[in-house]
Specification:
The chain is mainly α. It has helices spanning 12-28, 41-67, 77-93, 98-102, 112-128, 133-159, 181-196, 206-226, 229-249, 260-275, 277-287, 298-311, 322-328, 350-357, 359-381, 388-407, 415-435, 455-477, and strands spanning 69-73, 440-444. The protein has a two-stranded antiparallel sheet with strand order 1-2. Helix 1 (12-28) runs antiparallel to helix 2 (41-67), helix 1 (12-28) runs parallel beside helix 6 and helix 6 (133-159) packs across helix 7. The chain is globular.
Length: 478
């Protein structure tokens, strides 16, 4: 243990409050809903996310002031995150409309302000989840419980589509609390990964095995009902990777090194990604759960991104400007379709949308972030942990976050999915800090920062910035 580790817990009470807010956010975000016609679901979840992250940042920073130290972890990933914060700030300043690019209407998730908040949440959650496995378990329990509530609501909707409509706001069998019908599929897939990876090595009691098995079966039911091939493909890649990891880290004859559990799941997922519609179609018809979404195709997203890169090649047109860029560089072929008048606010996925508006610097940064995360995962997966609990949290969080990151290449998910991705990635890095595969250090306040400004003054300034953010977003929400 770091000899200065005791300073980590100097502000433990404030940090425990920040941890409680993170758990509350993870639990509430998928189910957050107000039955008010003029309040969009995205607005409710957006403001909930913003206020929660600002409160967490305020409490955590104040706890570090009390501890008289900063925290940092090794590798290039934290520096890449800082570069990302600087990039989106510079890009929004050069966008021509700083307020719209940085703040937007107050609840869009492609603004510079929200992207910075996600980066802050990722950094803070890394340190908070690096304390002990009990916190990791609490986050997983919050996600499982939230999924159970979402699933119960959805089952009622499937049985009686007219029920729980709240004045027509959530009408139809595919109306869901979490966001879109596909968001329910992504959430189900994450829960399935967390549940199935617990079985091979985790010492589970009979009752916990039953609970996890039931949750996994419910998740599979919704995945089959939603029938999205992209989800099955992502799950197939996850369990194929787990099978390879098990084979590479085990000893003995090669037949004993095969993980038949992961291989069997991979085969099932691969078959469903190929011919899943054979099972999904009759189930969709029986439950009247027909659903479709309008998305800008990959090729047209590329056309818009190419035009945007030509006009602003280095830092792009700025966050939250995809609609503007789409109108400027709209592919001519879309004018021949019924969607010629649609103003798309997102590209084919969350990541392609960012790449289209952040220029070459943004594209390079996205590649670096993916590379750093995958590299950290490979470093972790090469080691076989003696503690089954540590190994479970490490592998399940890495692959769950990696799965959602893969989804974002081809889809723009809701607030809940984005935040869950960041929290699981933070939990993974935090677990690796616990396991010792990623170094961490305590930086005391007894040094001078740039321009001879005492570092504790910088910390106080951060607290003031977060407090002002809470006030500003509060006024905008009202």
């Amino acid at each position: 243990m770091n000899p200065n580790q005791k300073t980590t817990f100097a502000g433990s009470k404030l940090e425990s409050w920040a941890f409680g807010i993170i758990i509350g956010l993870a639990f509430l975000l998928p189910v957050a809903f107000l039955p008010i016609q003029y309040l969009q679901s995205g607005m409710i979840k957006g403001y909930l996310t913003v206020f929660a992250i600002l409160a967490v940042a305020f409490l955590y920073t104040f706890s570090r002031i009390k501890a008289k130290s900063f925290e940092w972890f090794g590798g290039f990933l934290p520096y890449a995150i800082l570069l990302g914060i600087i990039l989106v700030l510079i890009s929004s300043i050069g966008s021509g409309s700083f307020v719209m690019s940085f703040f937007g209407q107050g609840y869009e998730y492609s603004t510079a302000g929200f992207l910075i908040l996600l980066a802050i949440l990722g950094m803070i959650s890394t340190f908070i989840f690096s304390r002990n496995h009990a916190r990791n378990l609490t986050l997983y329990a919050a996600l499982f419980l939230s999924f159970v509530l979402v699933a119960l609501f959805q089952i009622v909707k499937l049985i009686s589509p007219a029920s729980l409509s709240f004045g027509g706001i959530l009408s139809g069998a595919t109306a869901t609390l979490i966001g879109s019908w596909y968001d329910l599929g992504f959430f189900s897939a994450v829960v399935l990964i967390l549940a199935l990876t617990a079985f091979p090595r985790m010492p589970l009691g009979r009752s916990r095995q039953i609970v996890l098995a039931v949750i996994a079966l419910v998740a599979v039911f919704f995945l089959v009902l939603i029938g999205m091939p992209l989800i099955w493909l992502g799950l197939a890649l996850v369990f194929l990777s787990l099978a390879v990891v098990y084979w590479a880290t085990s000893s003995g004859p090669w037949t004993h090194r095969l993980s038949w559990w992961n291989i069997g799941i991979f085969i099932v997922m691969a078959l469903l990604s190929w011919k899943g519609n054979v099972i999904s179609a009759p189930l969709i018809t029986a439950t009247n759960a027909t659903y479709s979404e309008l998305h800008l195709p990959w090729q047209m997203t590329l056309d818009v991104g190419t035009g945007s890169l030509k006009s602003a090649p280095i830092v792009g047109s700025g966050p939250n400007t995809f609609t503007k860029q789409y109108l400027l560089y709209k592919p001519a072929s879309i004018n021949q379709t019924d969607f010629w008048s649609v103003e798309f606010s997102q590209g084919s996925g969350f990541v392609p949308t960012l790449a289209s508006t952040l220029g070459l610097a943004g594209i390079i940064l996205i590649i670096i972030l993916y590379t750093c995360y995958i590299r950290a995962g490979i470093k972790s997966l090469k080691l076989r942990q003696s503690d089954p609990l540590a190994e479970y949290f490490s592998r399940s969080s890495f692959f769950a976050a990696a799965f959602l990151s893969f989804i974002m290449l081809s889809y723009a998910p809701s607030y809940a999915v984005l935040v869950i991705t960041v929290l699981l990635a933070g939990l993974f890095i935090g677990t690796e800090i616990q396991n010792g595969t990623i170094s961490s250090r305590i930086i005391p306040f007894n040094f001078k920062a740039g321009f001879a400004i005492p570092s504790n003054i910088l910390a106080i300034c951060l607290v003031l910035i977060f407090a002002v953010g809470i006030i500003w977003y509060g006024m905008k929400a009202v």
